[in-house]
Predict the 3D structure of the following.
Amino acid sequence: MRREVTPGANRSPTGPGRIKEALHNDVAVLRAAREVFAEQGWEAPVSAIATRAGVGVGSIYRRYRTKEELAQSLRVWAIDHLTDLVRDCVDRFDPDQRLLAVFFRRLLGESDGPLLASLGGKLPRHNEVDRAIGELLAALEALIALAREHSQLPADFTSADIMLMSVHLRPSLPTDPKRATELHERYLDFMLDGIEHAYRTGGLDTAPTWAEWYRMWQPE
């Protein structure tokens, strides 16, 4: 089971009402931070995140001492939610459906966007992020193994392929969210058809490794 751990977690208010309010505010802040960083990059001010989340700047700094701590918490939160989605797709697997298609359609419909590679270049490695990444890799490997077992993926399709596909499928588009999702799903169909073709014709070329993807996401 996923652990709800973030670098700022040791400063949560006490009492049921305060805890519920704090958790609600945390999610609002993390969602806002993801949107603002995606739009404005690492230089985005914390005040912009506070405005987007509908909270005061002071409440963010009471929870997270620095913008870096907030960003690390955002990465852990985003990775853990992605891991939960992968695990749920595996648990609910229907052999009459293409597992990768189910996963990506849920990713497009349910997630807030791809992991932000732009943050990796600004942030040092963090133990909780490494823990979350390790759990994500294990979940993705289980998904791929199940799909291969049911003859749905070529042998050289990798977990890194899934991560890079998610980046290509979720660029910010200057249109309303419903239309953006329709367009993302259109290109998902093209990708899935390509994978199906690769399975029938003998595989893919130059498959990325997990280490290669990780270097893109978290440059040293």
Observations:
- The longest helix spans residues 16-40.
- The chain has ten helices and no strands.
